[in-house]
Amino acid sequence: MVIIVAALILGAILGVFIFIPRHPTSGHSKSTHSSANSNKASKIYSKDEVTLHNKRDDCWIIIKNKVYDVTSYVEEHPGGDAILAHAGDDSTEGFYGPQHATRVFDMIDDFYIGDLKQ
């Protein structure tokens, strides 16, 4: 049992370092995709709209009031289905947890689709 847990933890750690983002496949065009730090206009999503995207094949998350379509990453997530725990909801706390290497903070920008309506 201990060996299995250790292997899962090591796999999650190593998986973060070999992450290769794919283009979003949920039907959103590249025009709404931008870096969270860019000056481009962002699409605004309501919390109710984000909540609808709560499945393995349609997964959006909120991190610090920014909306990310991580559907294409769900199957590659080193933590397995942990990414689905907050699908369609705020994942800020989990995203900034100790299980993530600092590199994920740059990678998440690849999935940015807009801002949460305040």
TrEMBL record:
Domain Cytochrome b5 heme-binding: residue ranges: 42-117
GO cellular component, as recorded: membrane
SMART domains referenced in this protein's UniProt entry, alphabetically: Cyt-b5
Domain of life: Eukaryota
PROSITE patterns xrefs: CYTOCHROME_B5_1, CYTOCHROME_B5_2
InterPro entries: Cyt_B5-like_heme/steroid-bd (IPR001199), Cyt_B5-like_heme/steroid_sf (IPR036400), Cyt_B5_heme-BS (IPR018506), Cytochrome_b5 (IPR050668)
Keyword vocabulary terms for this entry: Heme, Iron, Metal-binding
A GO MF label: metal ion binding
Family according to the record: Belongs to the cytochrome b5 family.
The protein's name: Cytochrome b5 heme-binding domain-containing protein
Species this protein is from: Citrus sinensis (Sweet orange)
